[in-house]
Structure formats: structure tokens, C-alpha cells
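Researcher: Please predict.
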Amino acid sequence: MTTGPAAPSPAWEARSAALWAAFDDHEPADFRALVQGLVDELPRGHPLIAFELACANDSTGRPDRAAPLYRTALAGGLDPYRERRAHIQLASTLRNLGELAESIALLRAERAKDPAGLDDATRGLGDAVDAVLALALTDAGREREAVALAVGALARHLPRYNRSTAGYAAALVAPEPGPH
């Protein structure tokens, strides 16, 4: 069994979470500088450096800078939860950059993962995968497929009508019967 880079300390994780919780309190350039200062504490080459910088660039309107950083983070080996987040966020960034085919392919690959092999937190990102995929499909002119995906995801959370709503979602993309 191979192991990735050491996880940051709980104190580092808490400071990262606090910084992201205060995102709206900062100007974009200041926020990126604060993230840079935080990741400067990590060992050189740690994949979280690229991941956090990708997130900061992405969240402050610089998707062109975020995309290669997400790729670097993914190549460096992230924990399963951050790996799924990086795939979702990279796909969203690619969507924003007009690279719809790759965005859709990344998200379809995430949807294809067996949920039984994922921890609870990582599995919990499934609806985020569906939401970003629905947006990418809409941008690709595949609105019925996008609505079916979004309604299907929503159906799991309704207090009633789960089965019928899921059925209606599936019917949106079911092949029409041909002439007999």
C-alpha cells in the first residue's frame, strides 16, 4: 500500500477552514495572498499547495490559472475527499472556460465511481457532481438531460414523491418508442 504526503496538522486544517469561512471578508488579491501564506507552511511539493491555490484562483475569478493547479494537485495525490472536490472544481472551471467535453467527461467519471468504495464525506459530494454536470450539460445544449439529472438528484431529498419524481426524471431522457 502506498501512502501520499503527510496530512497537514489539525491546526493548519482549522486555520484553512477559518480562512475559507471568511472568504467574503477579503478582496480577491488579499485572499489569494492569505492562501499563499497558509500553503507556504506546507512542505515543498505537497499537493495541497496546488489544490488550495487552485481553489483560491478559481473562487476569485481566475479559472485560467486554477485549471493547471487542479491538474497538478490531482497528479500529486490528494486524499479521497479533496480528490473528488478537485475533480468537481476542475470540471466546473473547464465549463467556465468553454471546455465542455472534458468537463462532462470528468463528471461522468466521478458519477461512475462505486459509492460503496467511498467514505461518507466523499460520497456526500455526489449531488455536487450532479449539479455541476447539469450545468455543463445545459451549456452543451443538452437541457433535457441536465434537468433529468438535477430532478433525479433532488428526488432523493424530497420528503415525499421520491419514487415518482425519480421516474419522471428518468422519463425525460428515455428513448421515445419507435413505430411498430
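Model: The chain is about 70% helix and 0% strand.
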